[in-house]
């Protein structure tokens, strides 16, 4: 049985060109991808992180990617713990913007896959705000929770 790419989910359709580029890249190449997990289910993202680590380790290429997915970061950390890829081959950066501009901070990862400075603060801040508002029942928009998205009228 043959399935057309059009029959795949949107996330899989987004991943296919990335995987093709990674497999086509020459040894020593750098492949840059924006939002490498775009529209993919969290369970799929967990496997994707290890797949990316395997590709880097076996094909000796570099992937520079952006993500807003905490589960992808955790999946790459788990690949380090499982020795799929050495910690020295992984660089995780946190980017923040404030009144002074944008800045990047490298977050060191240990040999056991643990981020040595703790969880990514920008992710943690959003998680704390959402969970805190949920647990406190804060739905008036006055607490620390991010504002609810506007809905079309």
Features:
alpha+beta, 4 helices, two-stranded antiparallel ribbon, 4 strands
What does this structure look like?
By secondary structure, this protein is an alpha+beta fold. It has helices spanning 10-24, 42-59, 70-81, 121-136, and strands spanning 30-33, 62-65, 92-98, 101-107. The strands form two sheets. A two-stranded parallel sheet has the order 1-2. The protein has a two-stranded antiparallel ribbon with strand order 3-4. Helix 2 packs across helix 3 (70-81). The longest helix is centred in the first third of the chain and has 18 residues, at 42-59. It is globular, with a radius of gyration of 18 Å. The N and C termini lie far apart (45 Å). The mean pLDDT is 84.
Short summary of the structure?
The protein is α+β, with helices and mostly antiparallel strands. It has helices at 10-24, 42-59, 70-81, 121-136; strands at residues 30-33, 62-65, 92-98, 101-107.
Written as H for each helix and E for each strand, in order along the chain, the element string is HEHEHEEH
Task: Name the helicity range.
Answer: 25-40%
Strand content: 5-15%
Question: Assembly state here?
Answer: single chain
Mean pLDDT: 84
The total of beta strands comes to 4
The N- to C-terminal Cα distance equals 45 Å
Task: Summarize the biggest pleated sheet.
Answer: 2 strands, parallel
């Amino acid at each position: 049985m043959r399935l057309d790419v059009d029959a795949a989910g949107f996330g899989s359709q987004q991943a296919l060109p990335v995987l093709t580029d990674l497999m086509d890249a020459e040894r020593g190449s750098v492949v840059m991808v924006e939002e490498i997990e775009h529209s993919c289910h969290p369970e799929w993202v967990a496997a994707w992180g290890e797949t990316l680590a395997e590709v880097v380790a076996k094909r000796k290429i570099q992937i520079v990617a952006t993500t807003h997915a905490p589960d992808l970061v955790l999946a790459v950390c788990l690949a380090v713990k499982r020795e799929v890829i050495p910690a020295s081959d992984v660089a995780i950066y946190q980017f923040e913007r404030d009144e002074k501009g944008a800045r990047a901070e490298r977050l060191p990862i240990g040999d056991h896959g643990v981020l040595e400075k703790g969880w990514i603060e920008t992710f943690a801040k959003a998680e704390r705000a959402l969970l805190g508002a949920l647990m406190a029942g804060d739905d008036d928009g006055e607490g620390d929770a991010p504002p609810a998205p506007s809905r079309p009228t």
